[in-house]
Design goal:
With about 160 residues, the protein is an alpha+beta fold. It has helices at about 25-30, 75-80, 90-95, 105-120, 125-130, 140-160, and strands at about 5-10, 15-20, 50-55, 55-60, 75. A five-stranded mixed sheet has the order 2-1-5-3-4.
């Protein structure tokens, strides 16, 4: 089995680690680094549960080989919380009941955060586009959309002050 030494930043911390060539970024995060917030759902990129940021872009980590992240910056659901403070989207999801069982929540949070980093006033179509490819079996999506709208509103209010 061929291994490669890769260097990357994970949630702001420098990581140098040897990984087998066949390991996915998801396996690196969960199994080798213990960051279990990123979930394995379908294993083929269709459910969105494994979504994390790779150099600021949301990716399905089950489809990315760990060696492809060499030299990159990875931000997981754990990395969104800084100094014990949740992001507006995390607070809003909690308040609107968008978390339900929680399995798909990290992927939805990353997708919503990516949207809100670009657009703090998204309409329903923009939210639907951000959530395309993410599957939830618990919420019916209404509370997820409500959470994004609440977070966006709070972000706009904070920017105005």
């Amino acid at each position: 089995m061929t291994e490669h030494l890769i260097n990357l930043k994970v949630n702001g911390d420098a990581v140098a680690i040897r990984v087998p060539a066949h390991r996915t970024l998801l396996e690196l995060l969960r199994d080798m680094l213990g960051l279990t917030g990123t979930k394995e759902g379908c294993g083929n990129g269709e459910c969105g549960a494994c979504t994390a940021f790779l150099d600021g872009t949301p990716v399905r980590t089950c489809l990315v080989l760990a060696v492809e992240a060499d030299g990159c910056e990875v931000e997981t659901i754990e990395g969104l919380t800084r100094d014990g403070k949740l992001k507006p989207i995390q607070e809003a999801f909690s308040e609107t009941g968008a978390v339900q069982c929680g399995f798909c929540t990290p992927g939805f949070v990353i997708a919503a955060e990516a949207l809100l980093r670009k657009n703090t006033d998204p309409d329903d179509d923009a939210i639907a586009a951000a959530f395309s490819g993410h599957i939830c079996r618990c919420t019916g999506y209404a509370s997820l959309v409500e959470g994004v709208k609440l977070a966006a509103k709070r972000m706009r209010e904070a920017a105005a002050n």
